[in-house]
Design goal:
Strand content: under 5%
Largest sheet: none
Low-confidence stretches: none
Number of domains: 1
Radius of gyration: 26 Å
Distance between the termini: 74 Å
Structural class: mainly alpha
């Protein structure tokens, strides 16, 4: 097993570690730290898998389509104006 000789944490985290031991969730400071690191490792792996899935989905979606950013902004503005107009009609029939 690997060894890290000293870990310093802020007082709040130290209190949390000790509470976990006092509550019986863990038997030692090392067990708490190991569980936290495992969780972080799992979260990193989940994030990597999500990115890979998104890449695969994008690749499977076909050839890229042209995107006109100016047209996109114009469409969003039109939608916003339309929605604002409908809201005004509801408030002032």
């Amino acid at each position: 097993m690997g060894e890290i000789s000293l870990i310093k944490v802020d007082e709040g985290l130290a209190d949390f570690v000790h509470q976990q031991i006092e509550n019986g969730a863990f038997g030692s400071e090392s067990e708490v730290i190991e569980a936290a690191l495992r969780l972080l490792q799992e979260q990193d792996q989940d994030a990597i898998e999500a990115i890979r899935a998104a890449i695969a989905e994008g690749e499977a979606s076909g050839e890229p389509q042209p995107f006109d950013f100016d047209e996109f902004l114009a469409e969003m503005r039109r939608k916003h104006i339309d929605q604002a107009g409908r809201a005004a009609d509801l408030l002032h029939p």
